[in-house]
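Blackboard transcription, Thursday session:
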Amino acid sequence: MTVQLDAPRAPVSGGPRQRHLPGEEGLWVFILGDLLMFGVFFGVLVVSRAKDVVVFAEAQAHLHVELGLLNTVFLLTGSWFVARGMQALKARSPRRTAWFVAALGTALAFATVKVLEYSLLISEGQTPADNDFFMYYFVFTGIHLAHLVIGAVFLTILVTIARRPQLTKGRFRLAECGAVYWHMVDMLWLVLFPLLYVVR
Amino acid sequence: MSRIDLLFVSLVAATVLTWLVGVESSASHTVAGVAVLAIGFIKLRLVGIHFMELGNAPVVLRSIFEAYAAVAFLVLTVLYIGV
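(Written on the board underneath:)
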Protein backbone atom coordinates (compact mmCIF):
# COMPACT_ATOMS: atom_id res chain seq x y z
CA MET A 1 0.00 0.00 0.00
CA THR A 2 1.30 3.46 -0.84
CA VAL A 3 1.34 5.77 2.12
CA GLN A 4 1.04 9.53 2.21
CA LEU A 5 4.48 11.10 2.03
CA ASP A 6 5.88 13.42 4.64
CA ALA A 7 7.06 15.74 1.88
CA PRO A 8 7.35 19.52 2.17
CA ARG A 9 4.21 21.39 1.35
CA ALA A 10 3.76 24.93 0.16
CA PRO A 11 2.97 27.28 3.04
CA VAL A 12 -0.67 28.15 3.45
CA SER A 13 -1.18 31.85 2.86
CA GLY A 14 -0.79 33.57 6.21
CA GLY A 15 -0.12 30.27 8.02
CA PRO A 16 3.12 28.95 9.50
CA ARG A 17 5.66 27.51 7.06
CA GLN A 18 5.66 23.70 6.89
CA ARG A 19 9.24 22.64 7.53
CA HIS A 20 10.60 19.22 6.67
CA LEU A 21 13.82 17.40 7.57
CA PRO A 22 15.09 15.71 4.39
CA GLY A 23 16.36 12.21 5.25
CA GLU A 24 17.16 10.99 8.76
CA GLU A 25 18.59 12.83 11.77
CA GLY A 26 21.46 10.33 12.02
CA LEU A 27 22.49 11.03 8.45
CA TRP A 28 22.65 14.75 9.20
CA VAL A 29 25.00 14.13 12.12
CA PHE A 30 27.27 12.31 9.67
CA ILE A 31 26.92 15.01 7.00
CA LEU A 32 27.66 17.88 9.36
CA GLY A 33 30.66 15.93 10.70
CA ASP A 34 31.89 15.38 7.15
CA LEU A 35 31.47 19.07 6.32
CA LEU A 36 33.55 19.92 9.42
CA MET A 37 36.23 17.39 8.47
CA PHE A 38 36.51 18.81 4.97
CA GLY A 39 36.50 22.31 6.47
CA VAL A 40 39.68 21.32 8.30
CA PHE A 41 41.11 19.93 5.04
CA PHE A 42 40.38 23.26 3.33
CA GLY A 43 42.13 25.13 6.15
CA VAL A 44 45.14 22.81 6.03
CA LEU A 45 45.47 23.49 2.29
CA VAL A 46 45.38 27.28 2.69
CA VAL A 47 47.81 27.33 5.63
CA SER A 48 50.25 24.93 3.94
CA ARG A 49 50.14 27.01 0.75
CA ALA A 50 50.99 30.15 2.73
CA LYS A 51 54.06 28.41 4.19
CA ASP A 52 55.41 27.35 0.79
CA VAL A 53 53.84 29.50 -1.92
CA VAL A 54 56.48 28.79 -4.57
CA VAL A 55 56.38 24.98 -4.25
CA PHE A 56 52.57 25.00 -4.23
CA ALA A 57 52.38 27.24 -7.32
CA GLU A 58 54.89 25.10 -9.24
CA ALA A 59 53.11 21.87 -8.29
CA GLN A 60 49.66 23.31 -9.03
CA ALA A 61 50.80 24.23 -12.56
CA HIS A 62 51.05 20.49 -13.31
CA LEU A 63 47.34 19.90 -12.62
CA HIS A 64 44.95 19.52 -15.54
CA VAL A 65 42.53 22.35 -14.72
CA GLU A 66 40.26 21.53 -17.65
CA LEU A 67 39.67 18.03 -16.21
CA GLY A 68 38.82 19.50 -12.81
CA LEU A 69 36.43 21.90 -14.50
CA LEU A 70 34.83 19.05 -16.46
CA ASN A 71 34.37 17.07 -13.26
CA THR A 72 32.75 20.08 -11.57
CA VAL A 73 30.20 20.21 -14.39
CA PHE A 74 29.63 16.44 -14.06
CA LEU A 75 28.86 16.76 -10.34
CA LEU A 76 26.60 19.80 -10.79
CA THR A 77 24.76 17.94 -13.53
CA GLY A 78 24.45 14.89 -11.26
CA SER A 79 22.98 17.06 -8.48
CA TRP A 80 20.52 18.59 -10.93
CA PHE A 81 19.49 15.11 -12.14
CA VAL A 82 18.96 13.96 -8.53
CA ALA A 83 16.92 17.08 -7.66
CA ARG A 84 14.74 16.54 -10.75
CA GLY A 85 14.55 12.83 -9.91
CA MET A 86 13.27 13.58 -6.41
CA GLN A 87 10.63 15.88 -7.87
CA ALA A 88 9.64 13.12 -10.31
CA LEU A 89 9.62 10.54 -7.50
CA LYS A 90 7.24 12.66 -5.41
CA ALA A 91 5.01 13.20 -8.45
CA ARG A 92 5.24 9.48 -9.40
CA SER A 93 6.36 10.60 -12.87
CA PRO A 94 7.26 7.75 -15.28
CA ARG A 95 10.61 9.52 -15.89
CA ARG A 96 11.72 9.23 -12.26
CA THR A 97 14.05 6.25 -12.83
CA ALA A 98 15.72 7.87 -15.85
CA TRP A 99 16.81 10.90 -13.77
CA PHE A 100 18.60 8.68 -11.24
CA VAL A 101 20.17 6.47 -13.93
CA ALA A 102 21.47 9.66 -15.58
CA ALA A 103 22.87 10.82 -12.22
CA LEU A 104 24.62 7.47 -11.87
CA GLY A 105 26.14 8.16 -15.29
CA THR A 106 27.62 11.44 -14.03
CA ALA A 107 29.14 9.60 -11.05
CA LEU A 108 30.76 7.12 -13.41
CA ALA A 109 31.97 9.97 -15.65
CA PHE A 110 33.51 11.80 -12.67
CA ALA A 111 35.31 8.66 -11.45
CA THR A 112 36.60 7.90 -14.96
CA VAL A 113 37.99 11.41 -15.40
CA LYS A 114 39.53 11.31 -11.90
CA VAL A 115 41.30 8.02 -12.59
CA LEU A 116 42.47 9.40 -15.95
CA GLU A 117 43.79 12.48 -14.17
CA TYR A 118 45.64 10.41 -11.55
CA SER A 119 47.16 8.31 -14.38
CA LEU A 120 48.28 11.40 -16.29
CA LEU A 121 49.85 12.99 -13.22
CA ILE A 122 51.68 9.82 -12.18
CA SER A 123 52.89 9.19 -15.74
CA GLU A 124 54.21 12.76 -15.76
CA GLY A 125 56.14 12.03 -12.55
CA GLN A 126 53.86 13.75 -10.02
CA THR A 127 53.29 11.56 -6.95
CA PRO A 128 52.14 12.10 -3.36
CA ALA A 129 55.77 11.77 -2.24
CA ASP A 130 56.89 14.76 -4.33
CA ASN A 131 55.78 17.60 -2.08
CA ASP A 132 53.07 18.70 0.36
CA PHE A 133 50.84 19.95 -2.45
CA PHE A 134 50.63 16.61 -4.21
CA MET A 135 50.38 14.74 -0.92
CA TYR A 136 47.29 16.83 -0.04
CA TYR A 137 45.99 16.66 -3.61
CA PHE A 138 46.01 12.85 -3.74
CA VAL A 139 44.79 12.35 -0.15
CA PHE A 140 41.94 14.89 -0.24
CA THR A 141 40.72 14.04 -3.75
CA GLY A 142 41.08 10.34 -2.87
CA ILE A 143 38.88 10.77 0.22
CA HIS A 144 36.41 12.71 -1.91
CA LEU A 145 36.46 9.94 -4.53
CA ALA A 146 35.67 7.40 -1.79
CA HIS A 147 32.66 9.57 -0.86
CA LEU A 148 31.63 9.57 -4.52
CA VAL A 149 31.75 5.77 -4.65
CA ILE A 150 29.45 5.62 -1.59
CA GLY A 151 27.27 8.22 -3.32
CA ALA A 152 27.07 5.97 -6.38
CA VAL A 153 25.82 3.15 -4.13
CA PHE A 154 23.12 5.53 -2.84
CA LEU A 155 22.23 6.43 -6.45
CA THR A 156 21.85 2.73 -7.24
CA ILE A 157 19.45 2.46 -4.29
CA LEU A 158 17.57 5.49 -5.65
CA VAL A 159 17.22 3.75 -9.02
CA THR A 160 15.86 0.65 -7.26
CA ILE A 161 13.37 2.69 -5.24
CA ALA A 162 12.25 4.63 -8.32
CA ARG A 163 11.61 1.41 -10.24
CA ARG A 164 9.24 0.09 -7.57
CA PRO A 165 5.59 0.63 -8.44
CA GLN A 166 4.77 1.78 -4.92
CA LEU A 167 6.51 4.39 -2.79
CA THR A 168 6.21 3.80 0.93
CA LYS A 169 7.11 6.39 3.55
CA GLY A 170 10.20 4.35 4.49
CA ARG A 171 11.42 4.09 0.90
CA PHE A 172 10.86 7.80 0.34
CA ARG A 173 12.87 8.60 3.48
CA LEU A 174 15.69 6.35 2.22
CA ALA A 175 15.54 8.08 -1.17
CA GLU A 176 15.87 11.43 0.59
CA CYS A 177 18.95 10.14 2.46
CA GLY A 178 20.53 9.10 -0.84
CA ALA A 179 19.76 12.45 -2.47
CA VAL A 180 21.10 14.45 0.48
CA TYR A 181 24.31 12.38 0.56
CA TRP A 182 24.82 12.85 -3.18
CA HIS A 183 24.41 16.62 -2.90
CA MET A 184 27.01 16.63 -0.09
CA VAL A 185 29.52 14.93 -2.44
CA ASP A 186 28.84 17.76 -4.91
CA MET A 187 29.16 20.49 -2.24
CA LEU A 188 32.53 19.27 -0.99
CA TRP A 189 33.95 19.32 -4.52
CA LEU A 190 32.65 22.87 -5.11
CA VAL A 191 35.23 24.15 -2.59
CA LEU A 192 37.93 21.50 -3.09
CA PHE A 193 38.11 22.26 -6.84
CA PRO A 194 38.94 25.99 -6.58
CA LEU A 195 41.30 25.46 -3.63
CA LEU A 196 43.34 22.81 -5.43
CA TYR A 197 43.12 23.90 -9.06
CA VAL A 198 42.44 27.62 -9.22
CA VAL A 199 43.44 29.60 -6.11
CA ARG A 200 47.08 30.70 -6.47
CA MET B 1 12.26 26.56 -17.10
CA SER B 2 11.72 25.47 -13.48
CA ARG B 3 13.54 26.94 -10.47
CA ILE B 4 15.74 23.84 -10.25
CA ASP B 5 16.69 24.09 -13.95
CA LEU B 6 17.49 27.78 -13.58
CA LEU B 7 19.65 27.04 -10.55
CA PHE B 8 21.58 24.39 -12.48
CA VAL B 9 22.28 26.83 -15.34
CA SER B 10 23.41 29.46 -12.79
CA LEU B 11 25.76 26.99 -11.09
CA VAL B 12 27.38 26.03 -14.39
CA ALA B 13 27.69 29.73 -15.29
CA ALA B 14 29.34 30.36 -11.89
CA THR B 15 31.78 27.53 -12.64
CA VAL B 16 32.73 29.18 -15.93
CA LEU B 17 33.13 32.46 -14.00
CA THR B 18 35.50 30.65 -11.61
CA TRP B 19 37.61 29.66 -14.61
CA LEU B 20 37.57 33.20 -16.08
CA VAL B 21 38.42 34.92 -12.79
CA GLY B 22 40.89 32.39 -11.44
CA VAL B 23 42.69 31.19 -14.55
CA GLU B 24 42.17 33.61 -17.43
CA SER B 25 41.99 37.02 -15.75
CA SER B 26 44.96 39.30 -15.07
CA ALA B 27 43.69 40.27 -11.61
CA SER B 28 46.12 39.88 -8.71
CA HIS B 29 46.32 36.35 -7.30
CA THR B 30 44.91 37.49 -3.95
CA VAL B 31 41.87 39.29 -5.42
CA ALA B 32 41.19 36.42 -7.83
CA GLY B 33 41.68 33.85 -5.05
CA VAL B 34 39.18 35.52 -2.70
CA ALA B 35 36.69 35.95 -5.57
CA VAL B 36 37.01 32.28 -6.54
CA LEU B 37 36.56 31.19 -2.90
CA ALA B 38 33.46 33.40 -2.63
CA ILE B 39 31.99 31.88 -5.80
CA GLY B 40 32.72 28.37 -4.45
CA PHE B 41 30.93 29.01 -1.16
CA ILE B 42 27.98 30.72 -2.87
CA LYS B 43 27.62 27.59 -5.02
CA LEU B 44 27.90 25.36 -1.94
CA ARG B 45 25.15 27.36 -0.23
CA LEU B 46 22.87 27.26 -3.27
CA VAL B 47 23.25 23.47 -3.57
CA GLY B 48 22.47 23.11 0.15
CA ILE B 49 19.47 25.43 0.23
CA HIS B 50 17.83 24.37 -3.04
CA PHE B 51 19.04 20.92 -4.13
CA MET B 52 19.33 19.54 -0.57
CA GLU B 53 16.13 21.36 0.34
CA LEU B 54 17.67 22.90 3.45
CA GLY B 55 15.73 26.07 2.67
CA ASN B 56 12.66 24.26 3.95
CA ALA B 57 14.43 22.29 6.69
CA PRO B 58 13.97 22.92 10.43
CA VAL B 59 15.42 26.31 11.43
CA VAL B 60 18.18 24.78 13.59
CA LEU B 61 19.56 22.66 10.75
CA ARG B 62 19.34 25.47 8.22
CA SER B 63 21.04 27.86 10.66
CA ILE B 64 23.89 25.41 11.29
CA PHE B 65 24.41 25.05 7.55
CA GLU B 66 24.30 28.81 6.92
CA ALA B 67 26.75 29.38 9.78
CA TYR B 68 29.08 26.68 8.41
CA ALA B 69 29.14 28.28 4.94
CA ALA B 70 29.71 31.79 6.30
CA VAL B 71 32.31 30.88 8.95
CA ALA B 72 34.25 28.51 6.68
CA PHE B 73 34.43 31.18 3.95
CA LEU B 74 35.53 33.90 6.40
CA VAL B 75 38.16 31.73 8.12
CA LEU B 76 39.60 30.51 4.82
CA THR B 77 39.68 34.06 3.44
CA VAL B 78 41.48 35.37 6.53
CA LEU B 79 43.97 32.50 6.40
CA TYR B 80 44.47 33.05 2.65
CA ILE B 81 45.12 36.78 2.74
CA GLY B 82 47.20 36.34 5.91
CA VAL B 83 45.54 38.94 8.13
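Lecturer's comment: Residues 132-163 of chain A form the longest helix (32 residues).
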